[in-house]
Specification:
The complex is a heterodimer. Chain A has helices at residues 23-33, 62-74, 104-116, 137-151; strands spanning 9-18, 38-45, 51-60, 78-84, 89-100, 120-124, 128-135, 152-157, 161-164. By secondary structure, chain A is α+β, with helices and mostly antiparallel strands. Chain A has two domains: 9-84, ACT domain (Alpha-Beta Plaits); 90-161, Alpha-Beta Plaits (2-Layer Sandwich). In chain A, the strands form two sheets. In chain A, strands 5, 6, 7, 8 and 9 form a five-stranded antiparallel sheet that branches. In chain A, strands 2-3-1-4 form a four-stranded antiparallel sheet, covered by helices on one side. In chain A, helix 3 packs antiparallel against helix 4. The two termini of chain A are 23 Å apart. By secondary structure, chain B is of the alpha/beta class. Chain B folds into three domains: 2-171, Rossmann fold; 190-356, 3-Layer(aba) Sandwich (Rossmann fold); 366-535, Thiamin diphosphate (ThDP)-binding fold, Pyr/PP domains (Rossmann fold), CATH 3.40.50.970. Chain B is globular. The chains are: A alpha+beta, B alpha/beta. The A-B interface holds A 17-18, 22, 25-26, 29-30, 33, 51, 63, 66-67, 70-71, 73-80 and B 118-119, 122-123, 126-127, 147, 179-182, 303-305, 307-309.
Amino acid sequence: MIRVPKEGRTYIISAIVEHKPGVLYSVSNMFRRRGFNIETITVGAAEEKDLARLTVTIKGDERTVEQSVKQLHKLIDVVKVSILEPESTVSRELALVKVKTDDTKVRSDVINYTEIFKGHVVDVAHDSLVVEITGDSDKINAFVELMRPFGLKEIARTGVTALSRGMRSARME
Amino acid sequence: MVKMSGAKALIESLKKQKVEVIFGIPGGSVLPIYDVLYDSEIRHILMRHEQCAAHAADGYARASGKVGVCMATSGPGATNLVTGIANAYMDSSPVVAFTGNVPRAFIGKDAFQETDIVGVTTPITKCNFQITNTKEIYRTVKTAFYVASTGRPGPVLVDLPKDTQTEVEDVEFDDGIHLRGYKPNTEPHSLQVEKAVKLLVQAERPVIIAGGGVITSGASQELLTLAEMLVAPVSTTLMGKGCIPENHPLSLGMLGMHGTISANKIVPEADVLLAVGMRFTDRSTGKVETFCRNSKIIHIDIDSAEIGKNVRPTVPIVADAKLALKAIRERLVKSYRKKERSTWMSRIQEQQRQQAEMEKRDGMTPTHLLAELRKILPNDAITTTEVGQNQMWAALYLKSYKPRTFISSGGLGTMGFGFPASLGAKVACPDVPVVDVAGDGSFIMTEQDLASSVMWKIPVTVMVLNNSVLGMVAQWQRLFYDRRYSAIDLDKCPDFVKLAEAYGAQGVRVDSPEEFAKAVKAAMKSDVTTVVDVPISPEQNVFPMVPPGAGIDKIMVG
């Protein structure tokens, strides 16, 4: 059944997987095959050798998320899966935003907003700036909306990556 | 560590897994393996289509409980296995498939007969591997067999690029299995068992639904003991058929779309439903929203992803069916006082009587012929089926008395499965008669392997219920599409008697139940495969039937 999320929220699923070719394929293929829509997916080396941490955000109801966690867990190359609850999770996304700044007034506005958002200008050209910004997805969305009237040229977002807070390690499924 | 070629390492690894037989077809990318097989004591059965190799391995696995092995070359050889692998996956059958591939340097270059078979089979295998390092062949094979046969069994594919077969390397033969992400849980949680027992003790109308998991885990006896103790009738899914003798007073028969009156009427009346080794498929539950909505459900399955997928249980138990049933029984013995349940039993008997009434038919009807077949076959005979009307008639009217004696394509519904599966079953159990209950539409899809059955002296009986149409499609068009018969006429083609004879098999056409009985008895004694062509009316429907989208108690009986 293709589950169209009528209601529900965004869930962050964190998985420890074998760090080897084909694993990302089998994970993303499972989501596609079961009709769960991936909003973002990030993957990179984890704390242990040969393991990677994969962070997936999906929108849906509790049942959809429970099923996707179980199906993920069933994959042989997935070692551990957990749902990260928002109140006990730090989540970050990085975005690179290229803004048209052929006007000096616009240029200084963009730089001001970047400072307010604790971002960095990482590339300067005569008619554009590239801003690096990190934060949760809402913060990045807000920044992008602020930049839109100036003339957004390009955006690259990494998708959400996340860890549970403190010493608690996320619930095993 | 021993120095040898990858091909040799593969065959040595298979020997260590006690593989007796491989069903396969050679080709360019597996030549080195076949060269080693030439000197090996492992039996290789040359099939005539790779799909049949996979189905035969599947049939072998289901009949024996051991892992079935099939082999094919790269490209089309590998893709021809796909239907068979998907079939094994849906029915949780332990099959290990080996494919050759182009040499490592050619992978990704779209070389001749290159297919990304690992990519293709990812969603239809428990896991799959491509050998990149010859040294790891033994460990990979060991892992493949372990994964295929443990937990919820299923197919695993191992792809060997041709140069890994020829390369001579130091192969490590005592590598352990290294799987951090695979630890099948078999022991039931005692707290959950406690909760289940509490429900069962209070139950007034307990019902058991048993699926293929009961057969896989060898839990039939445990199930029967528990059912008798609780006085709980047992319905099975198609995959569970045979886990309880179908002549037992507590047997309700198969549940679902073509389930028996007794199963479909009694299951929804349960106050406590014990579902074990089954997964609440649409074919079993009918309209899932209304399925047993007044019952408390205990769901035992070894695959945690099945719990809550289709139906939310009151008590979930993730465990091996046998261990869970045993734990429940042992705990139950302490607190249980056997109830008579005379009202409940008479209600069950009334439904069983209605079902038995439906089964009273004579002449050239599938109902009567399958009852005749049952009388002829010993209890341990194995029947396989194709898919469609033949399958549902067999499920309803050919009673099964023992686990692993009824082999059918449940999940995928693969026409053409039954015949090659019957060959696999016969190889696994050469001393019992094996009958494929077929339809003419299905049998034609894999009949070319009559050649392998004759050549390798694997005598089976194929009972072709020949209505000269795609019967189940015709039935749906008759019932739900205003008799607008679209693309179902098979035009009495081919002549199955001549077809059988062309392969050196025996063919016989029968026109009466007496001739049928005679033909089957002769076929069972024959050392060559017999095709029994059984002409039946194209107008016959499989009943009972639950219309699609309806609850299972909405049974049509004719």
